[in-house]
Amino acid sequence: MRSCYEAGRDGFWLHRWLTEQGIHNLVVDSASIEVNRRARRAKTDRLDGDKLLSMLMRYHAGERRVWAVARVPTPEQEDERRLHRELGRLRQERTAHSNRVRSLLVLHNLRVAHIGDRLWKQWWNEHGPQLLPGLRAEIEREVARLALVKTQIKAIEAQQHEAVKLGAQPAIALLARLSGIGVGSSWLLVKELFAWRRFHNRREVAGCLGLAPTPSSSGESQVEQGISKAGNKRARWLMIELAWSWLRYQPTSQLTQWFNERFAPGGKRMRRVGIVALARRLAIALWRYLEYGEIPSGASLKPVAT
């Protein structure tokens, strides 16, 4: 017996249950399912079910590229991703609370650089009593929520650093030895990308990140559409940030020299285009570093703490 369903909010619990019942199940990427290209098309649950059934039959008949099948992690691997994903949400909440307090103050022509720290308390004691009671109470509640979020962020970051320090995460410790890459960035890359996925070549690494090129070629028309953006968005965004950090902290590396020779003289637009290419090359270099122990050419390592 064979079945399939689209990857989504339900995650992988249904896949595990079906597998336990002896059913050969597939979790497929909904974006890879063929659709009618007309401007308007009928869409109902019955039509979607018929489409999935026909594609399931084609897949098991040997047409393996009919859709993209998701790689299902183990429950332990899935649980290991909770920590850094929660940390990312908390950082977004921290920014939202800070922006909300600043927006409320700007309504009364008040501006402050620091919110929630010692300088904020001094500023609030001086200017807070001048505000109306309703606004003052709202800001105080917002600052209280901000303080809670900051406490939770510090607790999670301390938990990550402690795990690396005790040797419980050797891959993360190895990646964090490279200058320009911290423990938090290493944690996300390993847990989202390198810990449970097995890549056979550099193209698979770039494709998983959505950093692979998307050409459009028909007859004499040759158009480059940019990167596919079809992979793990968390890891892709991080690789772009790490590429900028790599230029700053690894000036003697071969990757930095390649970027400076090819893209740096071309202005801002060329640098933005080049940073994507650098991120792709850097991801491949990091994969080889973790998989085969090949240190990126010219890269410097942080001194080992004693």
Outline the structure in words.
It is built from twelve helices and four strands. It is mostly helical and 306 residues long. The protein has three domains: 71 residues, no CATH class; 88 residues; 120 residues, no CATH class. Helix 8 crosses helix 10. The radius of gyration is 24 Å and the shape is globular. The protein starts with a strand and ends in a 14-residue tail after the last helix. The relative contact order is 0.07.
In short:
The chain is mostly helical. It is built from twelve helices and four strands, in the order βαβααααααααββααα.
Structure characteristics:
single chain; 306 residues; 3 domains; 57% helix
Would you identify the regions where 5 or more consecutive residues have pLDDT less than 50?
A: none
State which percent range the strand residues make up. 5-15%
Helix count equals 12
* First-last Cα distance: 57 Å
Structural class category? mainly alpha
